[in-house]
Structure formats: C-alpha cells, structure tokens
Amino acid sequence: MALDLLNERGTPLDKQQFDWRELVSIPSSKLNDDAFTRVRIILMNGIESEAVRFSHACARMNGALQRELALIRRVEHHQQTMVNWLLPGDLSVLETTIGFEQVAIEVTASVAMHEPDEYMAQVYRFGMLEDFDHLYRYSALMDRVHGKDSNNILQCYTDVCPGRPTSVEHRHPDDDLRAPYDRRTAAPLTKLHALTIMASEHQTHDYYMNVGPTFADPMARQLYAEIASIEEQHVTQYESIIDPSETWLEKWLLHEATEVYNYYSCAQSESNPRIKAIWERFVDYELGQLQHVRRLFEKIEGRDAAEILPAELPDPIEFRSHREFVRRVLQGEVHLRAVGKNIVDPRQVPETPQTLAYRDRLNMAGSPSETVAAGYVYVPGTELAVQAAQGKQANGNGANGNGAKVYKMRSA
C-alpha cells in the first residue's frame, strides 16, 4: 500500500534522536551484500547531502526560517552520517567510484522509464548515456592501475562498454541548460525525479573533486578531473529542469517529500534486513519532518500543501538491472547532442560553434578518457587474466602476436 503523504504522521521531530553507536554501526559487506544495497546507500547519502546543502542555502536567504531549518538539518546531518558510514572500509576509491556510476546508470534508467514528461525523460536518457561511458572509462582505469575487475562491484547487473564518448560530452554552458518543468502543471513525480537525480549527480561531482587529487597516478588524476567537469555539467542540467519560481518553502516541502519517496523506495527492495530497518526508520523520520515543514508552509504561505504534494507516493524507484533498456537507448540515442535547451540529432541540427570551440580547447592536448581506454574493451577477469590466458603465445604478447591487446565483449 502506498504511503499517504498528507495523513501519515511519522516520528515527531523531537523524537528523532541518535547515539554514536547507532550513527557508526556495522557497515555493509563489499562482496556479500547485493550490489543494489550499495547503490541505495550511495543514493541516499546523496539525497541527504542535498537536503543539508539546500537547508544551508535557504537559511542564508531566510532569517525567519533559520531556527526551523537548523532543527531539521541537524537530524538530516545525522541521517547522512548513519547512511554514509554503511559503506565498508575495504572499498577502494575506485571501487566506490564504480558504485557511484552504477547508481547514475540504474537509478537514472528507472527514472527515465517512469517519467511522465517525455522531454524530461529524454533529458534523463541523455545524461544516463554519458554516465554509462564514465563507468567504462573508470573500469579501464581500475583494470590498468589495479588489475581488478569492475564486475566484482557491479555483480553482472550493469554492462561495461562505451556510451556517448566522454571526450565529446564537453559543452559550453549555454548548451547544458534545459527547459524547467512548470510548477503549476507538472506531475508530482516529475518534481521528485528532478530532485532525486540532481542530488545524486551533485554528490558524484563533489566526490570526484575530493578524491581525484588523492591519486598518485597522473592518468587517474586527469581522468577524475575530466569526468568531474562533466558531472558539474550534469548538475547544471538537472538543476535547470526544476522550476526556479518555486518559493523557498515550496522547495523545502518538495525536498522532504523526495526524501520520503527515496527511503520508501529503498525499503521496498532492500535485501539486507538490518539495513532495511534503517530505511524504514528513516521513512518515519522523513514523514515527521515533512509534516513539520507542511505546517510551516501552510502557516506562512497560506496555501494548502495538497497543491504541492501527491496524495499518495508514486510507484517506487526500481533498484534492479536495466540492461535491456540501456542497450536500446544506447543503440538509438548515443549519437544525440545538446543544442541550447534541446537534445538533437547533429545530422539535422549541428552543435553550436561555442560548444565546438570549448571542446576543442579542452581536448587540445588529448582527452584523458580516450587515453585511459585506448585499446580497452571489458572482459571478465581484467587485462591480467587475458594476458595470463595468452601467456603461451609468442613472447607473451596478445593473441595477434604483435603486442596488441585483444578483448571480447562479455555477454549478459
């Protein structure tokens, strides 16, 4: 049964409390837990990060709301801590990065499939194909730097092959802005989707900016710098589809509804009972926060929250493999480009001179994403396994005997 956002009370704000043992509990398992447990953890850390980020920005613009924002923000911070600390300590930075890109692919695919506005669905598919390529580039880096197989993290749910090449994703800012939904007419699910994907992409950008400089390998440092730049473009894209005429309180209400929706989605499909209990607990916490903000909204703006919130939560996000959907989109839309606010076929509408000039300038000394994946196609077991299997051939070289690496695309 779907949650009734307008009538479910949830846990009262003054009962939403933690201690350190709860906040830093037993983490998930890198290999024993299902990959989608990690996907949910990474996504919800991003959702909470956005909640805290928005709350601080709102407080700087709205003195009268500062105390109410601070009360909820403290709980949001502790929720984020509890969620983020569920990631295990034995995940390397690159393994976590692979997890981030799996989130970007599978969650965005679910959103694109269920988005009622076709323009918005096109925007999500466009971004998804770029994140799909990022997974391929990071998988190549993991193979070449650590000799590890990214499928140890992906668990066969997500393909590893090129998407829209990262080297052509660089666009002038004019070509990263999209048309926003209309807050008066957009479906509630459209608003929840936009906040969800924007939050996820913003967290990814921040993570890559923080961890990129920690690598000693020059190619790794360059690759993180290049993909972080695209993630900034994605944040620009996804925040631009949100109607900027929404009031601060309207946006706050939608943030709280988005958190309820995402925790509810996680709880519906979580396979780890202990972590499922956390998702269920936080559904109740977010319902309590939603009701608190609803009272503020209705008191201060004199509007009924039913104008903004759906009577029932929409169907949850599907945490599952979307391989066939991604393959269809890859086949039909990988060639598309962004021109102004539209996604177009460049054979009919060429890319803008400013984007071409911007891209040429960035790539004038080469593209790290092209360099790191030169000659690389994913196979199970990594490059080291391929070389071992070919070790009896001439001088230990590749199958063609001239030192070239030969790979085969893995099947589903």
Radius of gyration: 22 Å
Q: Can you list the strand order of the major beta sheet? A: 1-2
Rounded mean pLDDT is: 93
**What about the largest sheet?**
2 strands, antiparallel
Multimeric state of these chains?
single chain
Proportion of residues in β-strands = under 5%
Number of strands: 2
Broad shape: globular
Please, how many helices? Answer: 14
Low-confidence segments, given as residue ranges, are 396-412
Helix proportion: 55-70%
Protein architecture, described:
By secondary structure, this protein is mainly alpha-helical. The chain is 58% helix and 1% strand. The protein has 14 helices and two strands. It has a two-stranded antiparallel ribbon. Helix 2 packs across helix 7, helix 4 runs antiparallel to helix 7 and helix 5 packs antiparallel against helix 8. The longest helix has 29 residues. The C terminus is likely disordered.
